[in-house]
# Entry
Amino acid sequence: MSKTAEAEGALETRGIEQVPDHERTAKTRELFPTWVGANISVLLLTMGASLVVAYGLNIWQALVVAAAAPVVAYGLVGLIGIAGKRGGAPGMALSRAVFGQRGNLLPGSLIWVARWGWETINAVTGAYAMLTILDIVFGVRANSVLDMVMLLAFVVATFAISGLGINAVQKCNKYATYVFGVFSVLVLGYLAVHTDWSKVMDHGAGSTAAVITGVGMIAAGGVSWIPSAPDFTRYLPRTASSKAIVGTAVGGAGIVVLPMVLMGAVMAVSTPDLASAADPVSFLGEILPTWIAVPYLLIALIGMLLINSMSMYSAGFTAQTLGFRVPRHWAVSVNAVISLVFGGVLMLVATSFMGSFIAFLSLLAVAFSAWVGVFGADMLRRTEYDGRAMADTTRTSAYWYRGGFSPAAVASWAVGLVAGLLFTTSDWFTGPLAKNNVVGEYGLGWVATIVISGLLYTALPKPAVAHPAEAAGTDAALAESAEQPATAGV
# Structure
């Protein structure tokens, strides 16, 4: 996004250090295609189908869910994104100011590991899209070897885009937004003409509890982007509109989530197997004619590439905050290798992709939400971040606090995380408090996590807020100290 520091599309070399004010020339409108690109996923179609098949909702209830979910999830994305313009640094670097230099390693490690799973799901979905295109166009049937070849190709392409940096990601998102819009209109038009609308409209309504659960399920996917929000806003000037940051996040996500969830709900009325398919994309070749299915799968493939590229881009920063003394684009390679290995296991072993995805999503949201509650509550009292203190990982840092930890932040994060898991239910794990209460019934363990960790942090005594250091000489100090491991000075 910075046209001063980097040539557009060139390799971004800046790591987790604070962006100087003179390089913060981005525009808030550039965030819109970012959040469009973050949601171009055929998994939304499958989740929309689940609203009808698994939750028993009718089309009007699905519409409510599809409209409410992006407002809930990406409203939080936009709010946390405001910290990026305040501090000019990635989310997990700003997090050092909240948790302390050592304390930040705890949520940072968990979020980094959680990203492995998210990137694995995206890589597998992208590989399935390529396999489906080969089947439709050339009649090539999938096998274990071809599965791994497609997975490898997808991961390599993801690494290439995310390794280049923010300008490459933003440019790809911009063009993908236009192409996706065109083909989405084509799919919507085809469905409007060929759908048995009497069957759709006659579908019975589900319970209010099911509607709330549906909102929670779809919003949980967006929660994973909340800690990454400052990564995409740090090149904004300090004077950028906070309202615009929130608006572009909600609008960019909503313009994709709403139609895709509805399309999935409509498709499920005539094709209920869509909600439980072992392969989350091959059904498109059965429901849509070839002249629509192939290009739509191609743009979906591009969308999955962009989603994974954005995730790996942020994961590179997280790895640096954990003490990996490598440039950001090489830190990205660690997640690329991990997603390749885990993706291979999922494609070769898992019997129910969607069941695994929903179970993973519920646990993933809790892992991210504990950090969100504490960091969000801290934003209410902190309007600036000290770039020198963030980069200084020794005892001299203003963010060293007590032995490198902020007791209030770490305790609130840990309590919120455990409490959220107690209220969470999934195919893989069911907390002891997940039944016989409204939170567990509605699948809102991640909401409980945010509320509990945020309220506890607000109530506990906290270290004094550090004031940013003088700008003179700061850039040189940051560039040198950003490469220090987070455990320095132990």
User: Anything to note?
Assistant: Confidence is low (pLDDT under 50) at residues 1-9, 470-490.
